Amino acid sequence: MIEYTKIMQWVLPPALIVGGFLVGLVFEKIIIKKLKSIALKTKWKGDEIVISAIRGMTIVWFTIAGIYGAILSIQLSPTYMNLIQKILLVMVIFSATLVLARIAAGFINTYANKVKGVVASTSIFANLTKLVVFLVGTLIILQSLGISISPVLATLGVGGLAVALAFQDTLSNLFSGLHIVASKQVRPGDYVKLESGEEGYVTDITWRNTTIRALPNNMIIVPNSKLASIIVTNYYQPAKVMSVLIQVGVSYDSDLTKVEKVTLEVAKEVLREVKGGVTEFEPFIRYHTFDDFSINFTMILRAREFVDQYLIKHEFIKRLHKRYQKEGIEIPFPIRTVHMQSDKE
Fold first, then answer.
1. Residue 19 exposed, middle or buried by CB count within 10 Å (0-12, 13-18, 19+)
2. I want to staple 240 with a disulfide (CB 3.0 to 4.6 A). Which of 189, 193, 203, 305 is the partner?
3. Average pLDDT, the chain
4. Can you give the CATH number for the domain in which 266 is found?
5. 3-class secondary-structure state, position 286
6. Which domain range does residue 298 map to?
7. What is the rounded CA–CA span in Å between residue 54 and residue 304?
8. Could you give the CA distance from residue 128 to residue 134 in angstroms, rounded to a whole number?
């Protein structure tokens, strides 16, 4: 009997720990997977957020339960028992805080996507929410360990000025990012051009940087404080539709009325047939300059968004050149007349 008791003392604790881990693994692979498949069939996105948040944590929780059962099955001094219980409590609170942070961030992202245009879908709000949840979780952990949080809060209040000075650049980027998001002048998905010449699609606004994806698929990282203080051209504000201006020159011998008629026919054809053209827009031209060797005018078309202008310009120039050749309209090249005087003269 004594031998059996000794064997159980050596076998039972590891068995409880391993059993807790295996139960958590089975729960994760079967129950959570089944719940996720059910959640995908519902219209409400909240259940998917909750299930995704607790995914992986069930193994941790069941393993902690197994460890707690194991320490109860063996003889430990009250000091060690109390220490292990506090460690397990901290692990439970921390894991629960992580789950709550995921849930809160998930709901914020879902709401931002739902009311797109009212709240920008950026990671800055999700990150701030996670930070607040983790701060609350840390205070709960301190309180559960018997550490009074009042002196901690007082210390934070007194040291707030020092922290603000130490993290001046970080806080500047944070508040600049909040200002950018709140003003809605630059939003994820917008095509922007910076004062320094960089341009591309805004992909995200974080607590420190704004990331812009250029057309060659390179990432441009701009500090929020820098973005808030420079001139930015937003090609998606107030609308994505934009005018496309193309400069053209024709010979002085050309019939300008015929040039206008032929050019408009080509422009309408391009807007009608080329992807990205605004078919309902009536293109027009404006003569503006008697140049050295040509009469210049601007062709005004309209594209649905910024990148559509490249294909529209490509097709317009190609088709206009072919049509001008057919109609006998000359596009002159630069001409200079040089008078040479001989030595005798």
1. middle
2. 305
3. 82
4. 3.30.70.100
5. strand
6. 242-327
7. 43
8. 10
> Distance between CA 205 and CA 223 in Å, rounded?
10
Q: Are 162 and 156 in contact (CB under 8 A)?
A: no
How confident is residue 117, by pLDDT bands cut at 50, 70 and 90?
very low
Cα(7)–Cα(12) distance, integer angstroms? 8
In the numeric block, the tokens 């109860």 are attached to: 72
CA-to-CA dists, residue 282 to 240, 263, 268, 300, angstroms:
18, 12, 7, 9
Site of tokens 């849930």: 103
Tell me whether residue 141 is in a domain.
no
Same domain for 114 and 6: yes
CATH number at residue 221: 2.30.30.60
Nearest-5° Cα angle at 94, 70 to 38 = 90
Specify the range with the lowest mean pLDDT, choosing from 106-110, 163-167, 224-228: 163-167
- Whether the bond between 238 and the residue before it is cis, its omega within 30 degrees of 0, is yes
Written as six digits, the tokens of 243 are: 């005018």
Distance CA 178, CA 129 (A): 13
Q: Could you tell me which residues are beta bridge partners of residue 248?
A: 297
Domain check: are 212 and 302 in the same one? no
Look-up of token digits 């958590």: 24
Whole-prediction pTM value? 0.60
CA atoms within 13 A on the CB side of 30: 6
With tokens 């805004």, the residue in question is 202
DSSP single-letter state for residue 216: T
Nearest to 189 by CA among 258, 248, 240, 143: 240
